[in-house]
Amino acid sequence: MLTRGDTGAMVYEPAHLQIASGDTVRFLATQRGHYAASIPEMLPEGAERFIGKIDEEISVSFEIKGRYGIKCSPHYAMGMVMIIDVGDVDGASPLPDAVPRRARDRMSKILMTGE
């Protein structure tokens, strides 16, 4: 989780992960003022929400297959999001209407280009 110096964009690196069920992802706040939280509208059925604290390193195990949306809540509307696909995920699944415009644009780019 960081702010890119060249563009000023607040991003997760990588912005997209493809993992297996049971894998654990560690979220590191490499710059102050960020954290990771699941996006409630972008959780597979039965998956539990998670939310870190500002500047906190957290590890999350992803057991349920599907697409997970991740956000930094203070910067969500500015497009600080990432996508984690657990197992095989239908690439055509639409983004929920509740996702803010900049976050939606960023997620669409992530899904199209992988960045």
Count of discrete domains = 1
Approximate helicity band: 10-25%
Tell me what portion of residues adopts beta-strand conformation.
25-35%
Instruction: Report the average pLDDT across residues.
Output: 88
In short, what is this structure?
The chain has 1 helix and 8 strands, in the order ββββββββα. It is of the alpha+beta class and 115 residues long.
Structure description:
- The chain is an alpha+beta fold and 115 residues long.
- It has a single domain (2-113), classed as Immunoglobulin-like.
- The protein is 11% helix and 28% strand.
- It has a four-stranded mixed beta sheet with strand order 3-8-7-5, with helices on one face.
- The longest helix is centred in the C-terminal third of the chain and has 13 residues, at 101-113.
- The model is unreliable at 1-8 (pLDDT under 50).
Q: What is the element layout, followed by pairings?
A:
Blueprint: E1 2-3, E2 10-11, E3 16-19, E4 23-27, E5 37-38, E6 58-62, E7 66-71, E8 81-86, H1 101-113
Parallel strand pairs: 3-8
Antiparallel strand pairs: 1-2, 4-6, 5-7, 7-8
Pfam families: Copper-bind
Main location: periplasm
Cofactor: Cu cation
Characteristic key phrases:
single chain; 11% helix; globular; Pseudoazurin; transport; Immunoglobulin-like; alpha+beta; copper ion binding
